[in-house]
Each structure stands twice: as structure tokens, then as C-alpha cells.
């Protein structure tokens, strides 16, 4: 691990600690309990010393009984404060994890398409679950252990120095050595702990892919190969986890050894002092008891060290997402998008996807007129979806500008812009819930009448009303239980229910039979006249192309021709070729 990586994981941990501010009262409760616990612990050997020297040695049974009673009180107090400390530190940790989970989710929702294009879903899931859990357990357990250890060390060292400074100095000499060993453990092994989390993310990736793609896996009879792939990654996870164990194994026995050596020193040197009557037996017993209390914190810090290293690595991974730049955001003086006159202008637009080597759009220029239905046609990969992606600012052009009624789309408030653009995507995403909830996704307060109207337009109402539960039918995860065409029509109904001015249909009737597609198209034509200023349809069917007021013909990112069906038939050999090869005849 490089120095800078080390620093940033420690900086990430510091930020986690700053997050404690919003839970300061609960955290304070934990620290207060801890201080009281330390006092109760520190007092116990003194009760011992008093009981032995003034009770047993002085043959005073009252003192013996009193000291025994006091020890019971001290034990009860220790139990109580221990409970308070654990309860409040756990509560604090839950609060911190709650905040981080929410922050991460909100950030993931705000991050631009370009971020999600590059990020691995499973790694993001691991960050939102396992990494946050590591941080939670650090706050709930390791942090309070370390604070407790430091407070105990300072308190007990002071008491030991007061009791017998020579013996105390000999004993305390072990502390810097232990501190050095632990620091070395941290700096050497930080990256190993980070690798464990990455490996877990990779393992989750395969799991996730296989769960989502279970049908493909079975259809291609790849179960055993997928199991082998999973096992290989699982082996790697074990290997890297074992590395952390080796690191722990190489460090902690030395600390244990050191702690045992101190006992030898105390019994040897302290015993000699007792013989010379420079130290009472009670004091030696008390000193030895303190020794346990002083070694315990060192060991606790030792045990907490791997968890802290792990939490630091996890915190770094979580903050990496929280700090990721949101590329597409509102400008400071963003204006709301209210109405649309229908003049959409692409002005010398070039666009390259982040990380791509070639441009997906090259110097594309066109302008629509109000109420036009624009069909975009082209071979696969020619840039059709990319054109429509630039309108709601899923991406911003690399060069040039996209304007609506003369305003650059970047001038608009993003939420108002997107809420007035209705899109039916190429791939349909449904959410688990009822059909009604799915159709009303963007307008949860829609009435049943509105929902039915949208469903009728999308030619899905008859199907839904024949279901036993009708609109209250629960659809499975990602719409399992529905055919591709049914899913697509629900997606169309969902879009129709939004308050759109601009409508974009990206291949949205591709999974519907030709007759239904024509019915949908006719209903859409009516709606377009009522609600829409401009509609874009990525065309796969000759009927769509024929109905369009204008066709934009794309080829390898270039807008090579535009015009009506008849014009293009006359002028563009590519158009005729595409229609013949790609568009399914009706
Ligand atoms: N998220 C992305 N990241 C990088 N490159 C992309 C991304 N999406 C598309 N591309 C590339 O940009 C080019 C244009 O893609 P686009 O999706 O616009 O094509 P299309 O004409 O809609 O294709 P299809 O008809 O197959 O849907 C393609 O070469 C594609 O590989």
C-alpha cells in the first residue's frame, strides 16, 4: 500500500468520526459510561489492597467483610456501566450506519448515467452493505474499545507510578514496543484488508449476474462452469482473508509474549521488594491486579487493530462513491422548464461516451418544427439512442448544443426538464409491486380512471382486466410473470401518465405484434396532438417510418439524410437498404 493510500484511508476514518457529531449525545453517554467503568475498575484493586493489608494481615474481620461488600458494589457498578457503554456505543453505531446508508443511496440516485455506465453494480452493493457494516462495527465495538483502552492505560499508569514508580517504569516500558508493533501492523496490512472487500465485491458480481441471468445460464447449460467461476473467486476471497489472518498471527503472539514477560518482572522485582519490606503484600497483589488491567487494553487495541484497518479501507470505499463527481447537475441560475413550443435544435452536436475511443455522434445538426413526429432510423449502433439520451441530459454533448425553443438544455432545471420528457426505454424496468403501482410510478396520486385511460391507450387494459386481481395484480421482481410485450405496454402506459411535452419512444413497440403496435401508434398519434410538442420514435417498423413527419437517417454517428419516407426512398440508397434489411414488414 502506498503512503497516499494509507493517508486517505485514515482521512476517511477521520470523516467517519466527524459523522459522530450528529449523534453526540448518545456518543457522550457511551464515553461517560466508559469513564465511570474505568473508575470502578481502578478502585477494585485498592479495595483488595485495603482488605489484605488492613483486614487479613491486621486480622480485622470487619475490614475483611467491608472490603468484600465494597467489591460486590464495585462489581455491580462495573456491570451497570459496561451495559451503558455497550448500549450507547451500539446505538451510536446504528445511527452512523443509518446516515451513511441514506447518504450513499441518495448519492447513487444523483450520480449521472456516465458513472453508472462505468461502476460495477455488485461493487456498489458491497459498499452499501458490507462496507457500511464494517464501519458500523468499528464505531460500535472497536472505537469504544480503543478509547476505553487509552483512558484505562492513562489512569492505571498514573496509579502504578504513584504506588511504585520503579516497578511501574519497568512495566510501562512494554507500551512503546507494543505501540510500534501495532503501527507496523497497520501500515503493512492496510491494502490486504481493502483487497478483502474488493474480492467480496467480485464474488457478489458473479452471484448477482447468475441470479439475474439464471434463465440464460440454464438455457446454455452453463451451471457447472458458473459454479467453477464462483468457486475460483471464493477461493481467492479465502486466500486474501487468510493473508489477514497471517498478518494477525505474526503480530499478536509477540504482544502476548511481552505481556507475560511483565508478570515475571513484577513477581521477581516486586517480590524482592516485599521481602525487603519496601512493599506490602497487599500492594503487590493490587499492583499485579492492575497489571491485568493494563495488559487488557493493549490486547484490546491489538484485537481492534485489524477491525480498524478493515473499517478504514471500507470507509475509503464508501467515501469514494460519496465524493464521486455528479457530472450532470443544475447550473447556478437554472430556469424551470414549463412549456415547449416544439423547436428542438441539435447544433453541431458531437458526443463521445466517457472512456470510449470513438465518437457516438459526429457533428449532428437538425431542427424540429412544432408537433412533428420524428423517426430516427439507422443500423444498430449508429447513434439513435444516443441522440435521444442528450435531450433529458442523461449525458451532455462533448461539443455543440442541444436546444429547446432556443434554450440550451443545460440552462434548465434538471428535474423540471426530465419530468416533462416522457421516455419509453428500449429495456423495460418494472418494480416489484402491483400493476397499478407500476403504471402510476411517476404519478403515485393518479386516480384509477387515469390509470385505466393510460392502459387503454397502451393497449394493455383488456389484458389487465382479465386478470383475477386486475390492477392489483402483484408483478414479480423486474416484471416476472409478464411477457416482453406486456411489460413494454405497461411501460408505455407508465410514460403516458406523466406530464410530458416531449415524447421519446426508444424501440418501444419492438416486442409487440404488428397489429397491437399499429393500435398503440394510432392512440399515440391522437395523444401527440393533444399533449406533445415533439415526439421522437426510434423506428424499427415501416409503419412508424411512414407515419413520421420526418425521418433522421443515422450512419456511424453521422446524420446522413433527413426527409419524409418518399423523399428518402428517392434520394437515399442507404435508407432503402435499411428498410429492406432491418425493418420488419407489416
Ligand atoms: N454507455 C455507453 N458507453 C460507451 N459506449 C456506448 C454506450 N452506449 C452506447 N455506446 C456506443 O455508442 C454507439 C451508439 O450507440 P447507440 O446506443 O446510440 O446506438 P443505436 O443506434 O441506438 O443502436 P441500437 O439500434 O442497437 O439500439 C455504439 O457504438 C455503442 O457501442
UniProtKB/TrEMBL annotation:
Pfam families per UniProt: ABC_membrane, ABC_tran
Listed transmembrane segments: 25-43, 63-81, 143-162, 168-187, 251-270, 290-309
Keyword Hydrolase attributed: no
InterPro entries recorded: AAA+_ATPase, ABC1_TM_dom, ABC1_TM_sf, ABC_transporter-like_ATP-bd, ABC_transporter-like_CS, P-loop_NTPase, Type_1_exporter
UniProt membrane topology term: Multi-pass membrane protein
MF (Gene Ontology): ABC-type oligopeptide transporter activity; ATP binding; ATP hydrolysis activity
Domain ABC transporter: 344-581
Keywords, alphabetical: ATP-binding, Cell membrane, Membrane, Nucleotide-binding, Transmembrane, Transmembrane helix, Transport
Compartments in which it is found: Cell membrane
SMART domains per record: AAA
Residue ranges annotated for the ABC transmembrane type-1 domain, each copy included: 28-310
Domain of life where this protein originates: Bacteria
Main localization (coarse): membrane
CC per GO annotation: plasma membrane
Keyword Secreted: no
Name the record gives this protein: ABC transporter
Organism: Leptolyngbya boryana NIES-2135
Amino acid at each position: 500500500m502506498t503512503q497516499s493510500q494509507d493517508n486517505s484511508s485514515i482521512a476517511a476514518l477521520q470523516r467517519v468520526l466527524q459523522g459522530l457529531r450528529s449523534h453526540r449525545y448518545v456518543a457522550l453517554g457511551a464515553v461517560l459510561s466508559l469513564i465511570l467503568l474505568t473508575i470502578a475498575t481502578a478502585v477494585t484493586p485498592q479495595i483488595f489492597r485495603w482488605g489484605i493489608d488492613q483486614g487479613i494481615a491486621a486480622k480485622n474481620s470487619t475490614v475483611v467483610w467491608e472490603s468484600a461488600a465494597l467489591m460486590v458494589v464495585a462489581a455491580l457498578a462495573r456491570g451497570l456501566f459496561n451495559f451503558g457503554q455497550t448500549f450507547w456505543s451500539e446505538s451510536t453505531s446504528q445511527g452512523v450506519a443509518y446516515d451513511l446508508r441514506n447518504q450513499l443511496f441518495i448519492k447513487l440516485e444523483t450520480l449521472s448515467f456516465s458513472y453508472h455506465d462505468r461502476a460495477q453494480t455488485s461493487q456498489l452493493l458491497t459498499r452499501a452493505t458490507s462496507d457500511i457494516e464494517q464501519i458500523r462495527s468499528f464505531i460500535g465495538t472497536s472505537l469504544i474499545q480503543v478509547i476505553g483502552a487509552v483512558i484505562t492505560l492513562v489512569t492505571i499508569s498514573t496509579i502504578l507510578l504513584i504506588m511504585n514508580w520503579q516497578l511501574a517504569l519497568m512495566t510501562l516500558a512494554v507500551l512503546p514496543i507494543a505501540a510500534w508493533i501495532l503501527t507496523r501492523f497497520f501500515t503493512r496490512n492496510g491494502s490486504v484488508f481493502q483487497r478483502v472487500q474488493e474480492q467480496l465485491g467480485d464474488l457478489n458480481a458473479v452471484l448477482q449476474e447468475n441470479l439475474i441471468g439464471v434463465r440464460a445460464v440454464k438455457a446454455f447449460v452453463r451451471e457447472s462452469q458458473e459454479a467453477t467461476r464462483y468457486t475460483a473467486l471464493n477461493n481467492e476471497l479465502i486466500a486474501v482473508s487468510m493473508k489477514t489472518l497471517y498478518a494477525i498471527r505474526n503480530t499478536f503472539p509477540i504482544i502476548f509474549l511481552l505481556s507475560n514477560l511483565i508478570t515475571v518482572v513484577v513477581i521477581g522485582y516486586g517480590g524482592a521488594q516485599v521481602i525487603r519490606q519496601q512493599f506490602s503484600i497487599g500492594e503487590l497483589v493490587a499492583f499485579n491486579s492492575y497489571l491485568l488491567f493494563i495488559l487488557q487494553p493493549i490486547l484490546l487495541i491489538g484485537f481492534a487493530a485489524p477491525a480498524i484497518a478493515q473499517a478504514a479501507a471500507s470507509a475509503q470505499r464508501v467515501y469514494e462513491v460519496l465524493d464521486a463527481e455528479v457530472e450532470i447537475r443544475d447550473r447556478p441560475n437554472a430556469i424551470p422548464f414549463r412549456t415547449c413550443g416544439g423547436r428542438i435544435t441539435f447544433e453541431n452536436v458531437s458526443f463521445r461516451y466517457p472512456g470510449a475511443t470513438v465518437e457516438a455522434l459526429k457533428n449532428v445538426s437538425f431542427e424540429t418544427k412544432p408537433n412533428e413526429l420524428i423517426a430516427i432510423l439507422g443500423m444498430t449502433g449508429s447513434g439513435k439512442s444516443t441522440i435521444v439520451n442528450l435531450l433529458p441530459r442523461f449525458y451532455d454533448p462533448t461539443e455543440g448544443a442541444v436546444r429547446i425553443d432556443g434554450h440550451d438544455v443545460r440552462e434548465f432545471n434538471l428535474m423540471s426538464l426530465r419530468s416533462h420528457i416522457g421516455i419509453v426505454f428500449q429495456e423495460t424496468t418494472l418494480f416489484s409491486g402491483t400493476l397499478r403501482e407500476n403504471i402510476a410510478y411517476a404519478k403515485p396520486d393518479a386516480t384509477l380512471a387515469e390509470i385505466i385511460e393510460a392502459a387503454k391507450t397502451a393497449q394493455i387494459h383488456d389484458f389487465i382486466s382479465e386478470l383475477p386481481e386486475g390492477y392489483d395484480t402483484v408483478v414479480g421482481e423486474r416484471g416476472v410473470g409478464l411477457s416482453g410485450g406486456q411489460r413494454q405496454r405497461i411501460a408505455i402506459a407508465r410514460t403516458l401518465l406523466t406530464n410530458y411535452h416531449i415524447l421519446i419512444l426508444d424501440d418501444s413497440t419492438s416486442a409487440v405484434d404488428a397489429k397491437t403496435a399499429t393500435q398503440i401508434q394510432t392512440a399515440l398519434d391522437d395523444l401527440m396532438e393533444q399533449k406533445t410538442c415533439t415526439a421522437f420514435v426510434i423506428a424499427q417498423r415501416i409503419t412508424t417510418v411512414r407515419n413520421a413527419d420526418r425521418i433522421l437517417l443515422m450512419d456511424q454517428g453521422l446524420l446522413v439524410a433527413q426527409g419524409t419516407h418518399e423523399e428518402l426512398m428517392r434520394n437515399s440508397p442507404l435508407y432503402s437498404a435499411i428498410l429492406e434489411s432491418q425493418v420488419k414488414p407489416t
